[in-house]
Amino acid sequence: MLGLSVYARPRSAVEIEQRLRSIEQRLELSGRRASASAENTVDRVGGIIASALTGMAARFRGGAEAAEIGDVAAKLGNDALRRLSHEVEHRPLVTLAVAIGVGILVCLVSHRP
Hints:
mainly alpha
């Protein structure tokens, strides 16, 4: 304290040079460790980002497939509606009887304990 060092003062230029080399070696070793640590961190972060992007791409692909399935379902629904309207126009009594039968079945199923 008060300007005193914990280390003994070097007595010659050779000692100063040795201490400087020692400090340089420690700094190089610390730098290598920091560099390796930074590389590992960059690799880990890169892996996390790649995983997240892959997941997002899979979700978008899944969304495209769902949209395709939705389109097919809409087409099938439209076809069924066209057929039903055709049947109602040509056979109204049969359609009415089927509707009453379905209503009775739904009523029976919903009142079961």
